[in-house]
Prior knowledge:
Helix content is 36%, strand content 26%. By secondary structure, it is an alpha/beta fold.
Amino acid sequence: xxxxxxxxxxxxxxxxxxxxxxxxxxxxxxxxxxxxxxxxxxxxxxxxxxxxxxxxxxxxxxxxxxxxxxxxxxxxxxxxxxxxxxxxxxxxxxxxxxxxxxxxxxxxxxxxxxxxxxxxxxxxxxxxxxxxxxxxxxxxxxxxxxxxxxxxxxxxxxxxxxxxxxxxxxxxxxxxxxxxxxxxxxxxxxxxxxxxxxxxxxxxxxxxxxxxxxxxxxxxxxxxxxxxxxxxxx
Length: 234
């Protein structure tokens, strides 16, 4: 589902990603683990076509993100770390605009919004302005938005950052449920317990370089139980 081949991203003298190669299988939950500044968010921005790589190649569902960005983007839904929803619109209108941008018919958008909002517990707040939402509700709205067009791949950058324990566990359960339905998940985190609970495989990166790839249990045995968490994301 994802092929990252010798990916490098430079910002002047800073090498944010350094010759990174990762393959993510279809139907997998794959975690990208690393401390603050490791290059996780830069990787997400490149995968979601928001940032161009300096060199290397990235294929999403077989489509090159540079040569065929529209088809690549149609295969993915993205949940960014920042809560990038319009506070001056209702939750419903945020979702409606997203669906229209993906060429969905209004009738299908309405049905899809109703189904996903019920799953996420947002059905009673869809007609409220997003400015009145809590942080957890905004996070749920971004997940509904990412899933609206039925992507084959869901890319999530720190999906539970800043959330309370109960909301975090609900999102974990949702991620597992989506994966059972056939959605491939690629997620970044700096919490070992998150990838341990969710991921089939995990890649550890630091300063843009790949350190190790493997199953969470195997990596935990190799590197120990100390978390790579940091107080802030990169």
